[in-house]
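Input (structure):
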C-alpha cells in the first residue's frame, strides 16, 4: 500500500489518526461514511448539506451570541435585595476574588472561543463563496478543529442547571434573555458541527501541487487537515502549512507529565472545599462530594448522579485510561488494540464535561453576594479541579494513539 500511495495524489489517501493505517478515500456519496479498515474509526463522514446550511447556522449562532453578550442572564431576589448577572459576571467576580486563572478559563471557554469559532466558520465559508484568496482562508480554517473542543456552551448550560437547582431552594429566581440566547447558540453550534464537512472544505481550499512525489520522500499525514504529504519531517503541509511529523513530538513524555500533574491535583481537588456558602452569618464549606450529597438529600438524584459522574468518575477514569494506554504503549504490547483505541476516543470525548462544577460555581459566585445574609465564594478545591480538567484534556491531546499500533504487524495474505 505504501508504494501505491506514493504514486497517487495526496488527497486520495488518508492516514487514520487513531491507528496510522493508510486508506484510499474515493469521492463518497453524500450520507456515506468512510471508515478505517483496521480500527473502525471514521475517516470521512460525507455531509448531505452544502456549505450554505452551516453558513446559515453560523450566522444565526452569531446573532444568538451577540444577544447573550449584551442581555442579562439571570436575576435573583433575597432578603429584600436584588442581584443580576450577565454571562461575564462570574469570571469577573472569580478574578476579583483572587481566582484569576479559573475566571480566565471560564471566560475563555464560554465567551472567547465560541465567538472565534463562529467567526472562523463565517469568514471561511463566505470567503469560499466569494472566491477570495485561499491562502488566508486556509490559515484561518486550520484553527477550527483545534478550538472546537474548547467551545463549551453546552457544558456551561449543564452547569447552569445544577446552579439553578441550588438557587431556587434559597431565592426567587428570574431567568432572562441571555439564557435563551445561550440555548439558541448551543443549538446553532451543534448544527454547524453536524453539517460542516471539514474534508470537503479542505478540498475546496486546496491549491497544493499534485505532481508525483520523489521515491525517497516520506509519507507524513497532517494532523490539522488530514493531507497526506510526501516530504521530510519538519517541513510544512502542502495544503494548510502546518508542521509535519511522523508522530506527535515527545508524545509519551508530555502526556505522562500532564497525567501525573493531574493525578497529583485530583487529591486536593476532592479533599479541599470547592466553595463556601454563607447564609445568615453562618458559613459552610462544601467539597465536591459534599455538594453531591446535598443534591441527593434534596431528592435531586438525576443531578446528583450527573455531578458524581462528571466531577469524580470521569476524571478518575480518564487518569486510569491514560495510564493504561501509556504503559501499554511503552511496553509495546499489541493486545486489545481496538479496545485501547476506543478508550482513547471515549476519554477524548468526555473530558470537557468535567467542567460542570466549575461553571456552577462561577454562576453562584456571580449572583449570591449579599454579605452576611447570603454569599458564595470559590475555594482552593475549585482551582485544583479546574487544573485537573485542563491537564487531562492536554494529556489526551498530546498523546498520539498511532503509537499503540506501531508494533502491530498485519497478517500476511
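Output (sequence):
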Amino acid at each position: 500500500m505504501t508504494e501505491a500511495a506514493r504514486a497517487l495524489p495526496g488527497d486520495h489517501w488518508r492516514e487514520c489518526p487513531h491507528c496510522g493505517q493508510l486508506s484510499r478515500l474515493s469521492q463518497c456519496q453524500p450520507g456515506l461514511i468512510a471508515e478505517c479498515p483496521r480500527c473502525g474509526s471514521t475517516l470521512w463522514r460525507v455531509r448531505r448539506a452544502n456549505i450554505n446550511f452551516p453558513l446559515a447556522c453560523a450566522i444565526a449562532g452569531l446573532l444568538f451570541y451577540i444577544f447573550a453578550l449584551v442581555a442579562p442572564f439571570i436575576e435573583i431576589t433575597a432578603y429584600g435585595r436584588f442581584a443580576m448577572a450577565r454571562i461575564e459576571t462570574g469570571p469577573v467576580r472569580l478574578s476579583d476574588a483572587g481566582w484569576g486563572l479559573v475566571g480566565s478559563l471560564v471566560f475563555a471557554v464560554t465567551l472567547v472561543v465560541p465567538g472565534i469559532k463562529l467567526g472562523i466558520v463565517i469568514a471561511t465559508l463566505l470567503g469560499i463563496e466569494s472566491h477570495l484568496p485561499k491562502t488566508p482562508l486556509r490559515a484561518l480554517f486550520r484553527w477550527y478543529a483545534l478550538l472546537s473542543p474548547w467551545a463549551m456552551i453546552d457544558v456551561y448550560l449543564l452547569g447552569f442547571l445544577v446552579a439553578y437547582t441550588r438557587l431556587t431552594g434559597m431565592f426567587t429566581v428570574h431567568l432572562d434573555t441571555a439564557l435563551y440566547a445561550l440555548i439558541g447558540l448551543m443549538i446553532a453550534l451543534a448544527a454547524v458541527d453536524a453539517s460542516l464537512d471539514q474534508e470537503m472544505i479542505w478540498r475546496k481550499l486546496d491549491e497544493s501541487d499534485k505532481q508525483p512525489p520523489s521515491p525517497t520522500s516520506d509519507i507524513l499525514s497532517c494532523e490539522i487537515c488530514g493531507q497526506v504529504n510526501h516530504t521530510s519531517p519538519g517541513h510544512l503541509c502542502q495544503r494548510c502549512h502546518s508542521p509535519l511529523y511522523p508522530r506527535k513530538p515527545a508524545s509519551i513524555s508530555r502526556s505522562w507529565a500532564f497525567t501525573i500533574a493531574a493525578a497529583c491535583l485530583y487529591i486536593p481537588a476532592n479533599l479541599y472545599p470547592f466553595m463556601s456558602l454563607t447564609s445568615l452569618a453562618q458559613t459552610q464549606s462544601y467539597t465536591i462530594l459534599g455538594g453531591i450529597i446535598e443534591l441527593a438529600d434534596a431528592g435531586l438524584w438525576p443531578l446528583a448522579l450527573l455531578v458524581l459522574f462528571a466531577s469524580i468518575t470521569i476524571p478518575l477514569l480518564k487518569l486510569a485510561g491514560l495510564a493504561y494506554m501509556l504503559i501499554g504503549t511503552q511496553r509495546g504490547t499489541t493486545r486489545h488494540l481496538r479496545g485501547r483505541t476506543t478508550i482513547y476516543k471515549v476519554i477524548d470525548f468526555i473530558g470537557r464535561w468535567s467542567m460542570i462544577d466549575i461553571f456552577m460555581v462561577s454562576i453562584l459566585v456571580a449572583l449570591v453576594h449579599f454579605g452576611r445574609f447570603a454569599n458564595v465564594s470559590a475555594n482552593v478545591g475549585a482551582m485544583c479541579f479546574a487544573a485537573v480538567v485542563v491537564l487531562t484534556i492536554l494529556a489526551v491531546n498530546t498523546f498520539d494513539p498511532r503509537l499503540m499500533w506501531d508494533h502491530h504487524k498485519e497478517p500476511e495474505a
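Notes: Residues 1-46+208-246 form one domain. Confidence is low (pLDDT under 50) at residues 1-10.
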